[in-house]
Amino acid sequence: MDYFVSFTENDKSVILHQTPDKAEAVGFAIERQADYKAQGKHGMLTVYTLSTERGKPMQKCFEFLEV
Q: What does the radius of gyration of the chain's CA atoms come to, in whole angstroms?
């Protein structure tokens, strides 16, 4: 299972990082949070996995970080 880190600003979302290690994904998100705050960006960083429940793909979110 892979963990993804994405940044969402307004209605635009970009995947920044993909890794099989949850701790690495959370650490990457925390580092990006500090960088983005220093740059004056506003949005949300999300750590999640992709899964299928009842035949429909969905994101299972583990961590949200406000920027």
A: 12
pLDDT recorded at residue 9:
95
| DSSP 8-state code for residue 42 | -
Q: What is the mean pLDDT of each run of 10 residues along the chain (67 residues)?
A: 96 96 97 96 96 89 96
Cα–Cα distance list, 47 to 44, 54, 55 (Å): 10, 22, 22
Beta bridge partners of 47: 5, 63
Q: Which of 27, 63, 65 shows the shortest CA–CA distance to 48?
A: 63
- Global pTM reads 0.90
CB 25 within 8 A of CB 17: yes
Close Cβ partners of 50 (under 8 Å, ≥ 6 residues apart): 2, 4, 57, 58, 59, 60
